[in-house]
Amino acid sequence: MIARLWIFSDVHQHWPENAWDPAGHAPAGGFDAAVVAGDVHMPLVRALDWLAERLTGVPVVYVPGNHDMWWDRGEDADTTAAVAGQIAGAVYGASGIPTDWLGKLAWRERIEGAADRLYAAR
Predict the structure, then answer these.
(1) Residue 26 neighbours by CB distance under 10 Å
(2) Buried b (16+ CB within 10 A) or exposed e, 71-80
(3) What are phi and psi of 7, to 5 degrees?
(4) pLDDT 10s digit of each residue in the chain, 122 long?
(5) Where do the structural domains in the chain lie, given as residue ranges?
(6) Integer-rounded Cα radius of gyration of the chain
């Protein structure tokens, strides 16, 4: 089976003049998943909310863009750091995490167990 992907980016919803509803632009034949290549909204948490509200029930691959990583008044620094950590983990793997950081990680066993189950299910 070939997956039908809907790919879009740079919708910049933080600018009112760019108000855009994906429902009116979805591929006529439908799609199996959406690939969203960044610059959706700023800060990042608003981009995630915007996607979740508009693409319910659809698998979404989201790669934040440079505008998504900006934040207002520092309110989204933890989300930005979490996404950066996830990307670094995907690139470098668990062996790329300094061991002294792992020793301080809350719920380490729980997180590693969940990661192992996700990997096994692939």
Answers:
(1) 15
(2) beeeebeebb
(3) -115, 130
(4) 778 899 999 888 888 898 888 888 899 988 999 999 888 888 777 888 888 899 988 888 888 887 777 665 555 566 667 777 777 777 888 888 888 888 888 888 988 888 888 888 87
(5) 5-75
(6) 17
